[in-house]
Design brief:
The chain is of the alpha+beta class. Helix content is about 55%, strand content about 20%. The strands form 2 sheets. It has a 4-stranded antiparallel sheet, with no helix packed on it. Strands 5-4-7-8 form a 4-stranded antiparallel sheet. The N terminus is likely disordered.
């Protein structure tokens, strides 16, 4: 059992009629359910908040991001203590850093609790950190979880390949309908297996699991319908064209997911798309100052908002390139980011410049373009 304790002393306003000190001593532990053996997190501690007070416990992974909590529990104070159980995983606790955000919200309390606190009612909160496993275990667990998701994606992709192989056998109606029922069951099971999985949410790949499964499921259902229509009218090329399109979509989704999971590298077309999008963002950012000067509707607020948008989008493209290319090319890609930061900084400083900043902006944009020009070719090496 691993424990990390944090003591937080919360002093209420000195202007209160009755000075009072509220304290929270919180502990986060990894444990097991004695009956089921399921891993659980225990949130416990002591406090001098009034009996009946409700504390909100949010469990996060890696960092506290509102709306991305893995588990929530309402914990009740009784005789100066509290204990909350937060079950999360089915079998094994994912290695990494867990953060418990413990919060007292006066507006969620019963009226009698607020009355006891008088004028000193306000919000209190504290955080506790628990480290599970070391860096090696963290990497191993992450790889294991990603492979499980990739396996589910492969099951759906292979369903499309099985359908294609069956069509070559020219099955009779009864055989075809039997396979369709089997495939539809398989699709439902795969989709269900990828929804609301805490490991995926913790690692930030739940968008891949849920969105990819939805897209692949939709493509497979369209493929099955097109194949069924093809069996009834083999001379109609519309059905074969539809099947070719759906199989291509399945290939694209599968490859894109594996690339984002770090299990496959981006192909030449994907690298070119990412590089072209990044280049476009640099050119648009470089033209912001000219837009600010010439457009009567332009304002500094919108100027900086657009700059922030371009910066985030560029960073996103670079992250995808890093995820989708071998490590030997990472220094080259990071060079793109370094040059881009110079561009964004020049654009950010431009409105406050005492001299005309256009030459400086154009110079750093040209430096980026010069550096970026051979990158696509070098990534093929």
């Amino acid at each position: 059992m691993k424990t990390f304790s944090l003591f937080l002393l919360l002093a209420v306003s000195a202007s209160a009629q009755i000075p009072t000190e509220y304290s929270l001593e919180a502990t986060l532990e990894e444990s097991r359910n004695e009956k089921t053996g399921q891993p659980v997190f225990l949130c416990s501690g002591t406090t001098n908040l009034h009996d009946g007070t409700i504390l909100s416990a949010y469990l996060y992974y890696g960092k506290v991001t509102p709306g991305r909590d893995l588990r929530y529990a309402a914990v009740k104070v009784k005789e100066g203590a509290f204990l909350g159980t937060l079950p999360l995983y089915k079998d094994k606790t994912l290695s990494g850093t867990y953060l418990l955000h413990l919060r007292f919200n006066p507006y969620l309390q019963q009226r009698k609790i607020r009355q006891l606190m008088g004028e000193q009612v306000r919000e209190y909160q504290t955080r506790v950190t628990l480290q599970i496993g070391d860096e090696e275990a963290y990497r191993a667990d992450g790889k294991r979880v990603r492979k499980v998701l990739a396996g589910q994606i492969d099951i759906l992709w292979k369903t499309g390949q099985d359908l294609r192989a069956l069509l070559l056998e020219e099955p009779i109606r009864e055989v075809w309908q039997g396979y369709v029922k089997m495939w539809e069951k398989r699709i439902r099971e795969c989709v269900k297996a990828c929804y609301d999985i805490p490991e995926y949410k913790a690692l930030g790949i739940d968008d891949i699991s849920e969105r990819a499964m939805d897209d692949m499921s939709e493509a497979l259902h369209k493929l099955i319908r097109a194949a069924g229509a093809h069996l009834g009218d083999r001379q109609n090329t519309e059905h074969t064209d539809a099947m070719t399109k759906m199989n291509r979509i399945l290939d694209i989704i599968r490859h894109d997911c594996k690339r984002r999971l770090g299990l496959a590298f981006a192909n030449e077309i994907e690298r070119k798309r990412l590089l072209d999008t990044a280049k476009e963002g640099i050119l648009m950012a470089g033209g912001l100052y000219t837009w600010l000067r010439r457009d009567p509707k332009a304002t500094p607020v919108v100027y900086y908002a657009r700059l922030e948008e371009f910066t985030k989008e560029f960073t996103h493209q670079i992250e995808q390139l890093l995820d989708g290319t071998p490590k030997k090319h990472h220094k080259l890609i990071e060079g793109l980011l370094d040059h881009a930061r110079t561009v964004f900084q020049a654009v950010e400083e431009a409105p406050k410049s005492k001299t005309n900043p256009l030459k400086k902006i154009q110079a750093v944009v040209d430096q980026y373009l010069e550096f970026a020009e051979p990158v696509e070719a070098r990534l093929k090496e």
